[in-house]
Amino acid sequence: MPLVFYDCKTAPSPRRARIILAEKNVPHELVEIDLRSGEQMGEAFRAINPGATVPALKLDDGTVLTDNAGIAVWLEAAYPDPPLMGTTPLEKADIATWQWKVEQEFGMGVASALRNSTPAMKGRALPGPHDYEQIPELAERGMKMIGHFLDKLDAHLESRDYIAANMLSVADITGFVFVDFAKVVGKRPTESHANIRRWHASLAQRPAFQL
Amino acid sequence: MPLVFYDCKTAPSPRRARIILAEKNVPHELVEIDLRSGEQMGEAFRAINPGATVPALKLDDGTVLTDNAGIAVWLEAAYPDPPLMGTTPLEKADIATWQWKVEQEFGMGVASALRNSTPAMKGRALPGPHDYEQIPELAERGMKMIGHFLDKLDAHLESRDYIAANMLSVADITGFVFVDFAKVVGKRPTESHANIRRWHASLAQRPAFQL
Fold first, then answer.
1. Has the ipTM of the complex gone over 0.95?
2. Is A98 found in the same domain as A198?
3. Among partner residues B96, B105, B141, which is closest to A70 by beta-carbon distance?
């Protein structure tokens, strides 16, 4: 039984897993779930992932992985070549550190800005089964976080081709996906972010990063 | 040159790294940084970690790791026995998934509740170099997140001795540290959380988990 990857072409979260699958050339069956029509809430998909989220990766023993943390680690262990989480202890640490910064300082900024301001997400300010009211001040804080992180990342990339460990890694993949997705809240790397723009343009040429 | 671990006995974040060091029996020199007196802001410590945070781990080549993500991954790679992040791909995925849930749903809840309400953290609602104003509604949201997560964790531990992969892992360590730390915002596992209390009591007997 091949791996089955449940994807949604328009969403940032499954895009992270999709790029890893492509960079590692992992054979898999692809199932597109249409989030815009609410297909993830339907009985068919909830039988696969009761949490009703993508990405989901069904393994050949029937186990379904349902978050990027688990999917990335599983793919790295099962398909180690090419490594995207480092080989030496120091590479692994540098990549984990930057993956964390990208997720906490940038991804959380974008999520805060979007989920606490979009009318369609009223009462749904956090993902998951519980409802949380939007907090407009948190959307503002998210915008500030994005600005601070882009400045920091640009300085970091001044002398680097990749975010961590001098190699293509999950940190680049996560960063690239969030840079693209930040457009939904009107944030793009500006002219003062020449290093980010060079890094982004270089990654965008890789087939795995194309939409 | 031995590893040097910069710790603070009273803080939750370095406690996570301290438990990993102890469970793996990693030889190291210990330097206590007194956060209460602001020692982390002093010149001596900022020469080691300009970010002025603990934990920090100085490696024998002089590299300093300054966050739990990097420290955990480095220790797992350099001192693989006993494994705390899994051995098989499936164990690794399960542990990464639960580590993420514990950090995002529980740790973030505690941090939101504390940092957005404590008078001493006015203007410092997020860690790091930038100042962010407190958002009282976010403190409330944090309290709700903690409650939801404790209920979920208790149900999850119903038939389990450990949080993930049927083995002691970083997910248990992180969860244990946050359960203890959640007391600062008045949240403790209640009588309805019998499974958490059994799991916590069992871990508390391990020397590495003792303060």
1. yes
2. yes
3. B96
